[in-house]
Amino acid sequence: MAEEKKIPYKIYLEENEMPKAWYNVRADMKNKPAPLLNPGTHQPMTAEELGGVFCDELVQQELDNDTAYVEIPQEIRDFYKMYRPSPLVRAYCLEEKLGTPAKIYYKFEGNNTSGSHKLNSAIAQAYYAKKQGLKGVTTETGAGQWGTALSMACSYLNLDCKVYMVKVSYEQKPFRREVMRVYGASVTPSPSMETEIGKKINAEHPGTTGSLGCAISEAVEVAVKNPGYRYVLGSVLNQVLLHQSVIGLETKAALDKYNIKPDIIIGCAGGGSNLGGLISPFMGEKLRGEADYRIIAVEPASCPSFTRGKFAYDFADTGMVCPLAKMYTLGSDFIPSANHAGGLRYHGMSPVLSQLYDDGLMEAVSVEQTKVFEAAEEFARVEGILPAPESSHAIRVAIDEALKCKETGEEKTIVFGLTGTGYFDMVAYEKYHDGKMDDYIPSDEELAAYAAKLPKID
Ligand SMILES: *Cc1c(COP(=O)(O)O)cnc(C)c1O
Question: 235, 236, 238: which to mutate for ligand 1, most atoms within 8 A of CB?
């Protein structure tokens, strides 16, 4: 009991164990993430420049490398109460099935209609847009989770929501699209013929099925051209990691309550938001020298930004309209092969996580997609949750680490992020069952060709 006093953020926790403040891990980083650069001048983006694209308060959060705790506005806390705190579950059945002495816990973020952690940041971003008196927001979505989360947040706050959805997903995931329309969002397949960049991309690549980078360019263009609109992004940015820290703060509160100290913390990494959120308070302790943890990012072998990318300034989008970010990247033109079904397709990575990784404070591994789906099924059959393919990357490595413990007899405690459910991903599961899924891994030559096109910044 008395032990609890040592943990500074405890004072922020309410009785229901939900944080009253987000934790900004940048405050404890010695090497801060590199600033976003203006794509024209290569100078750090000022708050004023960023304010043309993003909401004012979110710009402040993006640029603030020093404030450790940022109060969560009451309205956002009220919304969180609808689906938080999210469960931290001990995977007893999985442990038994694996015959491992390891203790496995997962933090389940799929307990809301959008089916993922993305709602944690969507409601925050929509709230600040509303507070600024804006009419609406624009965004892109790939598989659809972010678009769904943002639609839910916008309908709650009566904001207009325009979603540019990667064309291939728009066509292959009609149900996701309809969920967004339930919440009143307008959903446009990208590249569209409504924007200059969309027209250009359609002209240069007739019949293209789109990409995230291209949808981002369209959403930014629409936000900048329409008064009363701003652009919002569901991952990668510092502000999104800040909002997602609610995942890690709750996890830590629950573990501390039972005096459990994890040895290994694992999360899947697309743009890095769930992993960044989950590890933030643990990384904070590590940075302050109070505790040590093994932290592992898991990414697809077909889109290996951390494990095979370059740590360099790159464009966040294909259209090169967004600021440049210094991150682990495969190059803004990189698109994973068409048979890649497991999500986590973004070419870059959160600048915060990129810096932490470069500083040796966390590890990264890449896994092949058939192995990911194998782990997904193994988990689904004993734990009662059908996991999203993205989340299953973390399951794969949690299982692998638990099996290592079986060999060595070590009773390690493993915590992983189960970011969401996979009900809209049954086409991917179908491919796996029918043996139609293969493990395409890009060659060094391919990656080098993309890397050669990285912008030259000195
Ligand atoms: C979007 C998403 C991810 C990956 O995004 P991050 O920003 O890396 O967290 C992972 N899992 C699910 C279920 C998602 O929807």
Answer: 235
